[in-house]
């Protein structure tokens, strides 16, 4: 292992004491520099594989993912779980930085020392997680977070890519989004473990719920895990307890069936592919 810089050594000492400022600084430096990230992850070693439930939450803009996640975080905290949230926002064309639209949300949850929230841009990637976001998942696991929630926006390829790095995939939709259901029925990849019909107090929710449940039952009939379909109202936390139970049941299923290890291995293989691709692109840019 390469000799660690004084800064990294100091940060790691603070990191071991669960210093959240050191955590934030380490994630920032890892995002900025692939070399720093490599040295860091090497130093953390097996700690990056600590037990944690990594949950991906995705869906179209406007379906209420952020509000739902807020309520979910509070429920996990009531159970004594330490939580990390990674929010994937569209990158600025000019700066590459993430656009943080909801500062009140960040401030409200981050006052709890057991909740850590970080926003990442997509780094120009189509749908998937940037290297910085992938590294952040490992760093949060090493830090000892019990639950890590990865929030993304989009449909199709986005969900496929994110599903490779999480244990449980939650797909959120809402009444009136017929395009979402058509996409699922027309060949939507079978990656959803839990489907949520949020804003179910809106008109047409019963019909949307019946359609979604029917689609899931047909598409996932052969799977050992039968995806749950849950109605929620994020603003009032209605249905969030049921969602929490579904998430816990799915994680227990992954552990008891041995699928947890299979999913982590698939994520590792995908990441190796991404690292090779990124290094090749870097080398090509040097000569073009």
TrEMBL record:
Q: By its UniProt entry, which InterPro entries does this protein fall under?
A: AAA+_ATPase, GTPase/Isobutyryl-CoA_mutase, GTPase_ArgK, P-loop_NTPase
User: Which keywords label this protein?
Assistant: Chaperone, GTP-binding, Hydrolase, Nucleotide-binding
Q: Which ranges does the record mark as transmembrane?
A: none
GO MF term set:
GTP binding; GTPase activity
On the tree of life, the source organism's domain of life is: Archaea
Similarity field:
Belongs to the SIMIBI class G3E GTPase family. ArgK/MeaB subfamily.
Listed Pfam families: MeaB (PF03308)
Q: What is the lineage of its organism?
A: Archaea, Candidatus Marsarchaeota, Candidatus Marsarchaeota group 1
The protein depicted here goes by the name: AAA+ ATPase domain-containing protein
SUPFAM superfamilies according to UniProt: P-loop containing nucleoside triphosphate hydrolases
Domain called AAA+ ATPase: residue spans: 51-201
């Amino acid at each position: 292992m390469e000799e660690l810089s004084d800064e990294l050594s100091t940060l790691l000492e603070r990191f071991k004491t669960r210093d959240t400022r050191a955590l934030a600084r380490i994630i920032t430096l890892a995002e900025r520099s692939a070399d720093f990230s490599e040295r860091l992850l090497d130093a953390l070693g097996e700690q990056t594989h600590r037990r944690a439930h990594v949950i991906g939450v995705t869906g179209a803009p406007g379906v209420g993912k952020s509000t739902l996640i807020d309520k979910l975080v509070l429920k996990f905290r009531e159970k004594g779980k330490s939580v990390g949230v990674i929010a994937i926002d569209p990158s600025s064309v000019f700066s590459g930085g993430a656009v943080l639209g909801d500062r009140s949300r960040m401030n409200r949850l981050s006052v709890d020392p057991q909740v850590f929230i970080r926003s990442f841009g997509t780094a120009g990637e189509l749908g998937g997680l940037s290297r910085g976001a992938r590294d952040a998942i490992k760093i949060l696991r090493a830090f000892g977070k019990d639950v890590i929630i990865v929030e993304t926006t989009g449909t199709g390829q986005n969900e496929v890519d994110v599903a490779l790095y999480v244990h449980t995939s939650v797909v959120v939709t809402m009444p009136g989004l017929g395009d979402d259901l058509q996409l699922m029925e027309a060949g939507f990849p079978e990656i959803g473990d839990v489907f949520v019909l949020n804003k179910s107090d809106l008109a047409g929710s019963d019909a949307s719920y019946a359609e979604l449940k029917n689609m899931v039952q047909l598409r996932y009939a052969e799977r050992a895990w039968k995806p749950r379909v849950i109605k929620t109202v994020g603003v009032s936390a209605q249905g969030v307890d049921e969602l929490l139970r579904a998430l816990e049941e799915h994680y227990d299923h992954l552990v008891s069936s041995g699928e947890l290890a299979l999913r982590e291995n698939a994520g590792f293989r995908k990441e190796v592919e991404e690292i090779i691709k990124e290094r090749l692109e870097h080398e090509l840019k040097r000569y073009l």
